[in-house]
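Final report, closing paragraph on structural work. Over the funding period we assembled a curated collection of sequence-structure pairs, and we close with a single example.
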Amino acid sequence: MNRELVIPNVISRIAIISSPAAAGYEDFMNQLIHNSYGYSFETRLYKATMQGENAALSIINALETVHNSNDEFDIILIIRGGGSALDLDCFDNYELNFTAAQFPLPIITGIGHERDQSILDLIAYKSLKTPTAVAEWLIGKSLDFESLLLGKMQRLTNLADKALQNSRLELDTRFFKLKNAADRHFQKERYTLDKQAEQMKRLCNKFLDHQSNLLSLRDQKIVFLDPKAILRRGYSLTSINGKSITTENVKEGDIIETRTLSSILKSSVISKKTVYEKG
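Its predicted structure, as stored:
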């Protein structure tokens, strides 16, 4: 049953059942703490007697203490240094193995024997020969997970670089398309503006020519209507009291003034006769 449990990819919180005076426990902690990769582990020791007639009950009590605690652990270790077959007899105890088989956390054993296997080794999630081997296995699990992460990170980096290159290529392609489209649009608009400017220039020149002709005609008209020009053609201007003569403002005996090109004549009105033209 214990072997069917799922173990985390990274093991960081560890409950340890051992004797603090055991050489195997000291070797384990030294190997775990001073690992060359700098991995950090959170460990808590649950003291138990690891040999003798009270050892099995002591280990069972430690397992129950772990189970009843509020702390959350990834695994539980049962470790001790080497010893004789008689010293290791407690790990074949039925009650101990019955409790271990149903324990809800994966149990890792490092009991410190090279040849013989205890029943606890057989029912535990994983069995290793020594406490040092247990420490190396834990470090190896972290190393494997780090390598997995580094591999995934490298693949992710490669995918990101490839996606970035593809995006840059697509962006460059869109930029050139946009630039070409903008250039074509600007050329078209420039051509349209040039045509409109040319047309406006022609219209302005035409308007200016027309206005110039009008000014010339008005100038000619002004010259033509100049009184001196009229007098120069042999005509004369007659006025009375500085005003043009009309039938209403002249009567017999009035002095009128006649202006020619070279002289001013004054005369008296002898008679006034209204002449009607035949229409």
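The mean pLDDT is 88. The longest strand covers residues 13-18. We thank the funder for supporting this effort.
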